[in-house]
Write a structure and sequence with these properties.
Blueprint: E1 2-3, E2 9-10, H1 13-20, H2 24-62, H3 66-81, H4 87-113, H5 118-129, H6 132-137, H7 139-158, H8 164-169, H9 177-206, H10 217-262, H11 266-285, H12 288-303
Antiparallel strand pairs: 1-2
Helix pairs in contact: 1-2, 2-3, 2-10, 2-11, 2-12, 3-11, 4-9, 4-10, 5-9, 7-12, 9-10, 10-11
């Protein structure tokens, strides 16, 4: 990591790539590509996808228009990243870890209540992935498609291979870099192995697979409601809002640091903050398929130079 013109610690793969090669031009080119793709990803995985999840969950639970959700979300984002109102950010930083613990506990309760459906749900997942029609259409193609979506969703969840964690970790206050590495590793484990597994089992045990058109956040909310009623749906909605909004704030930082690497003038960072805030409205009101496709493409591009 290095110190920027404002005396702030900054770093990430773009700085590593820039100094990693004997041929400095190669390193510089890769660093620029990484920074550009990170900028794109900040609008996908870090913005529109999160805004869409927030909008979907609130609309599903409280029947609020996505347009209203998008406007409120855009204003809140602008207040923090442009207006400098950090209190909202600090509150989410405190609440998110606590909410994660409660989410895991609630998920386990739902699985226990619906335990009879767990084997059938898991079997249905595998049948849907490797059904006879798919096999008839080509085993290799079926496996490739399963891997493609599995890897894409895994990367979306834990950002493995993207290098994004290093950008925020470089600015963290830590007495030793190894400890900071352990913290990042724990985050990936808890997110993917614990939270995602529990969410998958909750949905599998709900009995909703193949019986509803709900997808994304709405499906998760419906799954919790099968055991916990409306209270479960409200709880999950609050969890999603906190998780997703904190992710938006974190990725704004990643995108801004990438832009700072590319264009040294602070004015460009202010322009980026405005665009980023506006795009939360776009993400909240856009089609889920479009949001996911853009996010997957941006993630793939970001992983290549890293």
């Amino acid at each position: 990591r290095t110190v920027n013109e404002n005396g702030e610690m900054c770093g990430g793969p773009m700085y590593t790539l820039q100094n990693a090669f004997k041929h400095k031009k190669i390193g510089k080119v890769l660093a620029v590509f990484f920074a550009v793709f990170t900028l794109l990803a900040s609008f996908g995985i870090g913005n529109s996808a999160q805004a869409n999840s927030i909008s979907s969950s609130i609309t599903s639970t409280f029947s609020v228009s996505p347009v209203i959700v998008g406007i409120i979300l855009s204003v809140l984002t602008a207040l923090i990243v442009i207006g400098g109102i950090k209190s909202i950010s600090k509150v989410s930083t405190v609440l998110v870890p606590a909410m994660a613990i409660f989410y895991i506990a609630a998920g386990i309760i739902v699985i226990i209540i619906n335990y009879k459906n767990v084997p059938e749900g898991i079997a249905l997942i595998f049948k849907s992935a490797f059904n006879t029609k798919a096999v008839a259409g080509g085993v290799a193609g079926t496996i490739f498609t399963s891997l493609r979506y599995g890897i894409a969703r895994g990367v979306f969840s834990n950002e493995a291979g993207l290098g994004s964690a290093a950008i925020s970790a470089a600015s963290a206050t830590s007495d030793h870099h190894v400890k900071q590495g352990y913290i990042n590793m724990c985050g990936t484990f808890i997110d993917t192995i614990v939270v995602c597994t529990i969410t998958g089992l909750v949905i599998a045990s709900s009995g909703l697979i193949g019986k509803t058109d709900a997808q994304g956040a709405a499906l998760t909310i419906s799954a919790f409601e099968t055991a916990l009623g409306k209270t479960g749906g409200i709880f999950v909605t609050i969890s999603i809002v906190l998780f997703a909004f904190s992710t938006i704030l974190g990725w704004e930082y990643n995108g801004e640091k990438s832009l700072e690497f590319l264009l040294k003038k602070p004015i460009y960072c202010y322009i980026y903050r405005v665009i980023f805030s506006v795009l939360t409205f776009v993400g909240a009101t856009a089609s889920l398929d479009i949001v996911w496709s853009f996010s997957d493409i941006a993630n793939g591009l970001m992983a290549i130079p890293n």
